[in-house]
Amino acid sequence: MAAKRRPVRAATVGVLSLALCLAAPAAARANPLGDIIGGVGEIVSGAVSLPLNVIVGTFTGPPVVGTLQGALVGTLQTLTMTTRGALHITRGTVPILFKILPFAL
What we know:
- The protein is mainly α.
- It contains three helices and no strands.
- The protein has one domain (31-104).
- It is flat, with a radius of gyration of 22 Å.
- The N and C termini lie far apart (54 Å).
């Protein structure tokens, strides 16, 4: 019976250790405003990425395949850059909110 509990115990300790590492407070950000501005830049770049890649794919590749390839690459870049920008904005606003929150309550 005790031999069967060891893998469960090891897995439980591993999961708890991982959760503790992920839930630990991050080091103080040196420049939260820079994160916000960088995030906005990522979102704007992501919005421009789709039409730009469609145009590049149309002019550099075969007529229909190049356009479809540009649309696919542009869509993936748009999703990636927009998500990354949103995470940068979140990472920049959280420290600012924690500084302002005591005064708001």
